[in-house]
Specification:
2 copies of one chain form a homodimer.
Chain A lengths: L11 H8 L3 H9 L6 H14 L5 H8 L4 E5 L10 H16 L3 E5 L3 H16 L3 E5 L7 H7 L4 E4 L11 E4 L1 H14 L5 E5 L5 H16 L8 E3 L4 H14 L4 E4 L2 H13 L9 E5 L3 H6 L2 E4 L2 H16 L11 E3 L2 E3 L21
Parallel strand pairs in A: 1-2, 1-3, 3-4, 4-5, 5-11, 6-7, 6-8, 8-9, 9-10
Antiparallel strand pairs in A: 10-12
Helix pairs in contact in A: 1-2, 1-3, 5-13, 8-9, 10-11
């Protein structure tokens, strides 16, 4: 390739000249091929292919005021387990967007204010039609800005500060930890602890509530069995060690696979067998869970992506029966592996986290 | 939000009318704010913000024939460990693209032919300026198509069928497995096996060659120590079991973390200690490796992304000193953890892969 060769980009007119047809015929080949005879169609298409003519969408954009682009923020780097669900979501979203004729365009931003500035630039510079939001939290300034601009928006994750909020899709985290707890109760455990995040995060409190509800339904005590921790395996290992050694705990429901990794480390540190002696269940079903035999709660990522695109599509082109902003709460799925099965074919052996 | 309220999208003219200025002044506020007085600037910007005016890039696009969009394919779903490096690359690419004023736009496609069809549609429908390719393989039809269309392209991964190919960025896989092998030799191992993929994949053969070279340099034998396998932990576990039990192997260099997981399973199955008794090194430094204490070769993902964007930028706007398509081969980094250190602070304990 020599981009410096000074050749002009081909135009509709140059294609028409080379194919010896009118510009209208070239336009018909592109936009209404049924109006063009087979031989002409072949000839014009051959020229278009030969010269690499790009029939710029720009003119169409100016008429429709639609770019067919949907924006979504991603982190500038991806490390650890935390972002795996969002990466899976992005893959599914790309497919779902395509099925409705849209493409996902990516951007990075620091914080919610930076994200709003990025929206502004994407709308001004790229005419982005709509946005998918992730990582919603208490007091989120993003949706207000988008609504003021009348931009279609769908959130993966609830607006925790606004119970009347609309146009979101989320996983029913409480249902996931409830299923995990009920599974451990069915395995004969009665001292079941919860390794979660500190109280105050919407997602974390949701996951805690499912454990609390299932324990109450089973008539089991929870006092002293609830740990609020940073999402760090080493911290979780120390906390789990205390719960297992001093509080008679035999099973742990965890708000993430990172916390569950720490729990497995503590089980091993005490010389107990995961699965057979101590049940451990994580959350998000990361590739790590599948690799080491850790039971985990899987989010319905593909369904969430399809639901987000459906919300945007309804807002962009509302039909008679469309709920343009009806929230969607999806059920997760408990994936049982060796780490929580007492009679399983083979016990999982946990990783040891080397001393930092 | 009520998208059905029939309000027309604001135009340059309606902003001008509301701000009581000329259309040229609005244009100046957007494109040449230094020409506009402070009070007018504030008033026009307030109206733009209030009504949500989008100064469509379309008109600029038609003049420049540039969309500032760069296309990249992603898989419609993401499972297991295989795609983690590409996801990390995508995050870094988004950041590098932004630094040059571009945005990444995503698409999915089935196979190389499907990818070419997607290029066609992205160029015609979205005026995408350039593409980043991944997953290059022998006999790739994609670069030929893109070159014929004079579209700037950069590949993450070498065009293995064409040693004279240009405009690619890749990790020096051989250097990675060479470093892993030398590290194991330094730990006192002499029977070091290679768990790789079947001969014929460019990336796999590259990684194999680094092990072969380091073994030759150390004067160590390789006969019977080279396994070509599918990228599946269970298959790798069976192969590693044979190498450890019957061939006196005490260390394994693996072409992926998936294969290394299988190797760790075999070490445990034989009651040996990873690190202390048997050294294991994976490739790609996935989050699984960090989580379970597996040594692994890390690809320089951020540098690769920056190099790809730099190649595209040079092709789009070649400057006097630009190498528009000079290949870039980047050195990986060996991350040593407990799985390959005989005297480490704590030995890794591998996962057991439950029977399928």
């Amino acid at each position: 390739m020599d981009p410096d060769d000074g050749v002009e980009r081909p135009t509709l007119a140059s294609v028409a000249a080379l194919a010896q047809v009118s510009k209208q015929t070239v336009s018909n080949v592109l936009n209404a091929p049924h109006l063009v005879s087979g031989a002409t169609l072949d000839r014009v298409r051959a020229v278009i292919d030969e010269v690499g003519y790009r029939p710029l969408r720009a003119a169409q954009q100016m008429r429709s005021h639609r770019s067919q682009l949907i924006g979504i923020r991603i982190d500038p780097v991806r490390e650890g387990l935390g972002g795996i669900v969002l990466d899976q979501f992005l893959h599914a979203l790309t497919r779902s967007a395509e099925e409705s004729g849209h493409r996902m365009v990516l951007f990075t931003a620091d914080g919610a204010e930076g994200e709003v500035a990025a929206y502004d630039e994407l709308v001004a510079g790229f005419a982005v039609d709509a946005f998918v939001l992730t990582g919603t939290s208490h007091g989120d300034p993003r949706t207000a800005w988008l609504r003021r601009r009348r931009l279609p928006v769908a959130s993966f994750g609830r607006p925790w500060d606004d119970p009347t909020g609309r146009s979101w899709v989320d996983t029913d985290g409480a249902a996931g930890t409830r299923a995990a707890t009920e599974h451990l109760v069915a395995q004969g455990h009665t001292r079941i602890a919860f390794l979660g995040w500190p109280v105050g995060s919407g997602t974390g409190d949701d996951r805690r509530s499912g454990w609390l509800g299932a324990m109450a339904s089973a008539g089991l005590p929870v006092a002293g069995l609830d740990a609020g921790l940073p999402d760090d395996p080493a911290v979780a290992q120390a906390a789990a060690l205390g719960l297992l050694a001093a509080r008679g705990v035999t099973a742990l429901v965890c708000a993430s696979d990172s916390l569950a990794l720490g729990a497995l480390g503590a089980v091993q540190e005490l010389g107990r067998r995961p699965g057979a002696d101590v049940g451990v269940v994580g959350f998000d079903d990361s590739p790590v869970a599948a690799a080491i035999g850790l039971s985990s709660v899987a989010q319905p990522v593909a369904a969430a992506a399809a639901a987000c695109i459906d919300l945007l599509r309804a807002q962009l082109d509302p039909g008679p029966g469309d709920d343009v902003d009806e929230p969607v709460l999806l059920a997760p799925r408990l994936v049982v592996r060796a780490s929580s099965e007492r009679g399983g074919p083979q016990a999982v052996v946990p990783p040891v986290l080397p001393a930092p």
